[in-house]
């Protein structure tokens, strides 16, 4: 793979090709294709992926497993307005997704029928009457033992606070600085979340997060959003953003979808790897699925040492998460906000995995429930709910300081 990275670095050094372009490259679907050799559908067979783009861009290629995926990162193609299912030959692969990955980068994910290896990766002038460039990738099936992947992308212990940062957290708990809240609007970018008609969970949560952030700021808290636009932010990076801000609390916002009649009302989740509720398991799979197909594997592959260290860190953090969830349920009940029949639950949502920051995930409602949908688009309900969340944070923070003082005695 060294030659591939060398080619990538070479492209970075050619401003005439990409760096000095003022416009993003656009995808030409009419001259793009996925071409499979042979007729044995459903089984791994040689594939040629051809993407026609308006001008050359730097890119990098690698594989991930569980399920097998080809990942291609571009700097930068604007995929907006293009449907991956419209690519000629799309049915030759199990799934195809693309979209903005992070600032300056877009990502294409190809879910494969088995292990593959990259044989050629070429970017050349477009052919057949098309303008711009053609990215041509040749991949071929290989035995599992020859399947070279980038490995597990989750590093849950990355960026854990050093002693100086722990001291900063203690300074907050003694009142020497404002409470810092990381607000995480779920989904974004090529991951729209739940969809009901034209309603996209990612957009609704971004709007609510902005209103909640305004309420919290006016209440004297410092707010650090994990995203401020329609961008895809991997779950691991959301936790890292919270750590980078020395956040005292992480609140992830969602409004998912379950079969009609199965769920309605707000619910609050805290980390519980052993949660066995069917709805919680289904929601966890939905929340984490976007990262799986976007090149991140959060499927429980942490090594045993990391698990032990995280469990030790959670001895203090986990009770604080659960205590905040209780304060939140109490504040919402007092305000008359309709709650789920089980308003407080444990679940294995990966965004709650942070061992060092109390974290909760709020399902503000379910887009599949008409009353919940109406609430989410009611400005008065959003304001009332945001104020209740702010009140719960304030009450929890005071209790947290008292508990911290008692633990030191």
Quick synopsis:
The chain has 409 residues and is an alpha/beta fold. It contains eight helices and 17 strands.
Mean pLDDT: 79
Total domains, how many? Answer: 2
Q: Class of the largest domain in CATH?
A: Alpha Beta
> What class would the helix/strand composition place it in?
alpha/beta
Estimated radius of gyration: 23 Å
- CATH architecture term of the largest domain: 3-Layer(aba) Sandwich
CATH topology of the largest domain: the name is Aminopeptidase
- What is the approximate shape? elongated
- Helix amount, in percent? 25-40%
Head-to-tail CA distance between termini: 57 Å
Give the strand order, joined by hyphens, for the main sheet. Answer: 13-10-14-17-15-16
GO molecular function: N-acetylmuramoyl-L-alanine amidase activity
GO biological process, one term: peptidoglycan catabolic process
Signal peptide: 1-18
Protein name: N-acetylmuramoyl-L-alanine amidase
Structure explained in plain terms:
It is a single chain. This protein is α/β, with parallel strands linked by helices and 409 residues long. It folds into two domains: 2-146, Immunoglobulin-like, CATH 2.60.40.3500; 163-408, Zn-dependent exopeptidases (Aminopeptidase), CATH 3.40.630.40. The protein is 33% helix and 26% strand. The chain has eight helices and 17 strands. The chain has a six-stranded mixed β-sheet, with helices on both faces. A five-stranded mixed β-sheet has the order 5-1-2-9-8, with no helix packed on it. α3 packs across α8 (379-408). The chain is elongated, with a radius of gyration of 23 Å. Mean pLDDT is 79; it is low at 1-22, 152-169 and 288-306.
